[in-house]
């Protein structure tokens, strides 16, 4: 097993499948009266969040606690970071405190890679800038496999702001490794030139959502990141919604079995309408549940053995 | 470093292998344990057999099948994965987590018989008792093993033992079953050549 999980590219097909299989077993714990396992008793997991993310932080915290690890939450707000402490000094402090794993969310792409050089424990990338979010890709893959029974041969459309989306990047890498075919869909301004070639050569790019929909098994809608929209990537929110938003009529053009995914949080009415988000095809709530199981599997496999 | 010629030319010592139970013996032992379970539990009512992977699982299934043959009583069978409850997780490499499958009706209020192939240090059974704790509350727990090789590190004993094999710590006991390995056999490795 690998020591750190920094990128979707860290995982080969066997390792990724091992994580998904382990997550399936971890999911059975959620159905029990006692949702707790002793596997990581005595281990310390630090959630080091330089960016706000209640959803991801709580998911990692629940996962670590279900495995009996001690959890320390470190938020940059109100910490010594605001007094000017560098990432390296924070890392050395964590090191001195004996952190066995550091789950890091950082606005700078590559920060988890740097951190991995400074601490002895495992580093899990919980989202770095516009770069990657590998556990999100794993939980997306888990959800697809749970709903559709397989990953190899699936056709997946990833729709929206690919340029700023770490979810998209990690998904392209992981899904390609596991044999699914990804099509990136969005306005030309939000799809970097040759991103497909840079990540996985078999990936397609399309600027026309309507032509892609009838041929896919999965549509993954990305959040329009209003906080990053300081340039004119598209004329108006209304125009974006009209061309790339998933509404009821568009959803009905999907094959019968196709599912709709969204990493959350959603802009209802922008990239996805309430009718779609709340439909039986939507896996948005399942994705949150599966997130805990997948993160339990990742923490167990990174910390469970002596491969450190 | 130079070795004397005599030492260099002597043939390497072959580790000795002794068959303790052959295929027919294994079947007889399973039958005997099934009878003992029926006798001790007075008909095996409200009894659930939980196999500890890997080889405890087919053993539990065989015992249930034999019990239903002898007394026409259906005994629940399940699998109890103990991976996450082991106390050597830090020392060993990461182990793959397997499924835990309980029979319909669960184990609450039932007499649970844990089934494993070899009883050695007792740590696997301890882990199984912890795992059991998290999946329900049985009325009582018993233990059935095909082989007891001794060297307990915990105060644990089996209620049903197929065969006691006194061993030294240098020896190892290997159980193979038709379901998992293609043949039913119990072998002792590393003992004094016979």
From TrEMBL, chain A:
Residues 3-145 form the Aspartate/ornithine carbamoyltransferase carbamoyl-P binding domain. It comes from the Bacteria. The keyword Transferase applies. Pfam families: OTCace, OTCace_N. Transmembrane segments: none annotated. Residues 153-302 form the Aspartate/ornithine carbamoyltransferase Asp/Orn-binding domain. It is an enzyme of class 2 (transferase). InterPro entries: Asp/Orn_carbamoyltranf_P-bd (IPR006132), Asp/Orn_carbamoylTrfase (IPR006130), Asp/Orn_carbamoylTrfase_sf (IPR036901), Asp_carbamoyltransf (IPR002082), Asp_carbamoyltransf_Asp/Orn-bd (IPR006131). It catalyses: carbamoyl phosphate + L-aspartate = N-carbamoyl-L-aspartate + phosphate + H(+). The keyword Transferase applies. GO terms for molecular function: aspartate carbamoyltransferase activity. Pathway: Pyrimidine metabolism; UMP biosynthesis via de novo pathway; (S)-dihydroorotate from bicarbonate: step 2/3. Keywords: Pyrimidine biosynthesis, Transferase. Gene3D superfamilies: Aspartate/ornithine carbamoyltransferase (3.40.50.1370). Its EC number is 2.1.3.2. Carbamoyl phosphate binds at residues 55-56, 105, 133, 136, 264-265. L-aspartate binds at residues 83, 166, 223. Catalyzes the condensation of carbamoyl phosphate and aspartate to form carbamoyl aspartate and inorganic phosphate, the committed step in the de novo pyrimidine nucleotide biosynthesis pathway. Belongs to the aspartate/ornithine carbamoyltransferase superfamily. ATCase family. Heterododecamer (2C3:3R2) of six catalytic PyrB chains organized as two trimers (C3), and six regulatory PyrI chains organized as three dimers (R2). This is Aspartate carbamoyltransferase. It comes from Micromonospora luteifusca.
From TrEMBL, chain B:
A motif (PRPP-binding) lies at residues 112-124. It catalyses: UMP + diphosphate = 5-phospho-alpha-D-ribose 1-diphosphate + uracil. GO terms for molecular function: uracil phosphoribosyltransferase activity. The keyword Transcription regulation applies. SUPFAM superfamilies: PRTase-like. Pfam families: Pribosyltran. Keywords: Glycosyltransferase, Transcription, Transcription regulation, Transferase. Residues 20-166 form the Phosphoribosyltransferase domain. Its EC number is 2.4.2.9. GO terms for biological process: regulation of DNA-templated transcription. Belongs to the purine/pyrimidine phosphoribosyltransferase family. PyrR subfamily. NCBIfam families: PRK05205.1-3, PRK05205.1-5. Also displays a weak uracil phosphoribosyltransferase activity which is not physiologically significant. Regulates the transcription of the pyrimidine nucleotide (pyr) operon in response to exogenous pyrimidines. This is Bifunctional protein PyrR. It comes from Micromonospora parathelypteridis.
């Amino acid at each position: 097993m690998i020591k750190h999980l920094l990128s979707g590219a860290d995982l080969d097909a066997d390792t990724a499948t091992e994580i998904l299989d382990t997550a399936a077993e971890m999911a059975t714990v959620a159905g029990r009266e006692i949702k707790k396992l002793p596997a990581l008793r005595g281990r310390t997991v630090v959630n080091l969040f330089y960016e706000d993310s209640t959803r991801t932080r709580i998911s990692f915290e629940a996962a670590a606690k279900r495995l009996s690890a001690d959890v320390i939450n470190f938020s940059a707000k109100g910490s010594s970071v605001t007094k000017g402490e560098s990432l390296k000094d924070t890392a050395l402090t964590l090191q001195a405190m004996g952190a066995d794993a550091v789950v890091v969310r950082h606005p700078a792409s590559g920060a988890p890679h740097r951190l991995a050089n400074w601490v002895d424990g495992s580093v899990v990338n919980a989202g770095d800038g516009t770069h990657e979010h590998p556990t999100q890709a794993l939980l997306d893959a888990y959800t697809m496999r749970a709903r559709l029974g397989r990953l190899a041969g699936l056709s997946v459309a990833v729709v929206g702001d690919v340029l700023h989306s770490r979810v998209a990047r990690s998904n392209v890498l992981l899904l390609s490794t596991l044999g699914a075919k990804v099509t990136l869909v969005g306005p030309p301004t939000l799809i970097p030139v040759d991103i497909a070639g840079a990540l996985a050569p078999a990936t397609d790019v399309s600027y026309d959502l309507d032509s892609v929909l009838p041929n896919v098994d999965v549509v993954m809608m990305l959040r329009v990141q209003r906080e990053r929209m300081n340039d004119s990537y598209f004329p108006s929110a209304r125009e974006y919604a009209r061309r790339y938003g998933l509404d009821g009529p568009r959803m009905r053009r999907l094959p019968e079995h196709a599912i709709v995914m969204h990493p959350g949080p959603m802009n209802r009415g922008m990239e996805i309408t309430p009718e779609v988000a709340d439909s039986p095809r939507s896996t948005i709530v399942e994705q949150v549940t599966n997130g805990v199981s997948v993160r339990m599997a990742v923490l167990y496999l990174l910390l469970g053995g002596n491969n450190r | 470093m130079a070795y004397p010629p005599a030492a260099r030319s002597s043939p390497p010592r072959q580790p000795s292998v002794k068959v303790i139970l052959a295929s027919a013996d294994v079947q007889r032992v399973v039958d005997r344990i099934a009878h003992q379970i029926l006798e001790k539990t007075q008909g095996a009512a409200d009894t659930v057999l939980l196999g500890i992977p890997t080889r405890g699982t087919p053993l539990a299934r065989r015992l249930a099948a034999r019990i239903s043959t002898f007394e026409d009583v259906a005994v629940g069978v399940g699998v109890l994965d103990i991976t996450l409850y082991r106390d050597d997780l830090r020392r060993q490499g990461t182990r793959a987590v397997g499924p835990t499958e309980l029979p319909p009706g669960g184990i609450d209020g039932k007499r649970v018989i844990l089934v494993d192939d070899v009883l050695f240090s007792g740590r696997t059974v301890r882990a199984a008792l912890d795992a059991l704790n998290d999946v329900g509350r049985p009325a009582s727990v018993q233990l059935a093993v095909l082989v007891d090789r001794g060297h307990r590190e915990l105060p644990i004993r089996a209620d049903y033992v197929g065969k006691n094999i006194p061993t030294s710590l240098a020896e190892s006991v290997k159980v193979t079953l038709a379901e998992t390995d293609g043949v039913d056999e119990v072998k002792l490795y590393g003992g004094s050549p016979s």
